[in-house]
Amino acid sequence: MSTPPLSGRDLLSLSDLSVDELLELLTFAAELKAGKHHPQFPQKVLGLLFRKASTRTRVSFSVAMYQLGGQVLDLHSGVTQVSRGEPTSDTARVLDRYLDVVAIRTFDQAEIQEFADYASIPVINALTDLEHPCQILADLLTIQEEFGALQGLTLTYLGDGNNVAHSLLLGCAMVGMNVHIAGPEGYAPDPAIVKQANQLMQGNGHVLITTDPEAAVKDAQVLYTDVWASMGQESEAGQRLPVFQPYQVNDALLEKASPEAIVLHCLPAHRGEEITHEVMEGAASRVWDQAENRMHAQKALLASVLE
């Protein structure tokens, strides 16, 4: 296939893509992984502007760009004037003159939106407190590899209604997957995101927000979890443990899902908390394929916006 028509585009949210563009991007990623295409972008430079810690996102973006023949500048906030209070608008207009594409990991979604408003180069959301679109590209690629198709499947996310839950709601809704989110009272996803997901479904699936983990996993083909306290919430970890314990992905809960169910986790994992060691290392786990697919999905995205 040809490169998806995303030249020069930003990806701040999965909803920035049309359904066709999302599906084309997943197909392109699968073909890149299979070695069917070898796009090259020599002399192109990717900037990584990260205010938060990162392993998979930082390394997968870097390797993807190197494989595309480009270069990477790691611009973590400690080595830039961002840490001394330089306005986002000023940073954006300067980096716009140096870089060809930038991936930003930060706290506030408004910050990445402001950067995109002042920069003409493609801006990619590498995680904010609201969304994590690049993670979900890899997740959908992994599910597609396993089942051959996406529409009609059911994904159950167990835990905190955080940025990953938000992007799962949007991404799954766009491809016609049912989405179940199960978590404690008071930790549900943003109602505005839930409303947006329902609108994106267009009658091709359903969204379920519940506090009942067993009801949520019934007949689900994909069980998904994340840490119970996201970056910036570490001080709440202790008080969250007993509240979230019923939502642990363990063998007992897995048995209540579809017999063909797979388990995903965006990592890093706290084994013994949101997921047991046995499930993480068990036959249903696709966690390591999912982690690898971060690189392939982001490689497809970079090639598409640089084309």
UniProtKB/TrEMBL annotation:
Q: Which residues bind L-ornithine?
A: 163, 226, 230-231
| Any one Gene Ontology molecular-function term assigned to this protein's record | ornithine carbamoyltransferase activity
What this protein is called in its record is Ornithine carbamoyltransferase
Arranged from A to Z, the UniProt key words for this protein are:
Amino-acid biosynthesis, Arginine biosynthesis, Cytoplasm, Transferase
Q: Which family does it belong to?
A: Belongs to the aspartate/ornithine carbamoyltransferase superfamily. OTCase family.
Residues reported to bind carbamoyl phosphate: 54-57, 81, 105, 132-135, 266-267, 294
Q: Tell me where in or outside the cell this protein is found.
A: Cytoplasm
Q: Which reaction does it catalyse?
A: carbamoyl phosphate + L-ornithine = L-citrulline + phosphate + H(+)
| Associated pathway | Amino-acid biosynthesis; L-arginine biosynthesis; L-arginine from L-ornithine and carbamoyl phosphate: step 1/3
Residue span, Aspartate/ornithine carbamoyltransferase Asp/Orn-binding domain: 151-304
Q: Which HAMAP family match?
A: OTCase (MF_01109)
Q: Does the keyword Amino-acid biosynthesis apply?
A: yes
| InterPro entries, A to Z | Asp/Orn_carbamoyltranf_P-bd, Asp/Orn_carbamoylTrfase, Asp/Orn_carbamoylTrfase_sf, Asp_carbamoyltransf_Asp/Orn-bd, Orn/put_carbamltrans, OTCase_ArgI
Q: Which NCBIfam families match?
A: orni_carb_tr, PRK00779.1
What superkingdom heads the lineage? Bacteria
Write the Enzyme Commission number(s) for this entry.
Answer: 2.1.3.3
Q: Which residues form the Aspartate/ornithine carbamoyltransferase carbamoyl-P binding domain?
A: 9-145
SUPFAM superfamilies in UniProt: Aspartate/ornithine carbamoyltransferase
Q: Which PANTHER family match?
A: ORNITHINE CARBAMOYLTRANSFERASE, MITOCHONDRIAL, ORNITHINE TRANSCARBAMYLASE, MITOCHONDRIAL
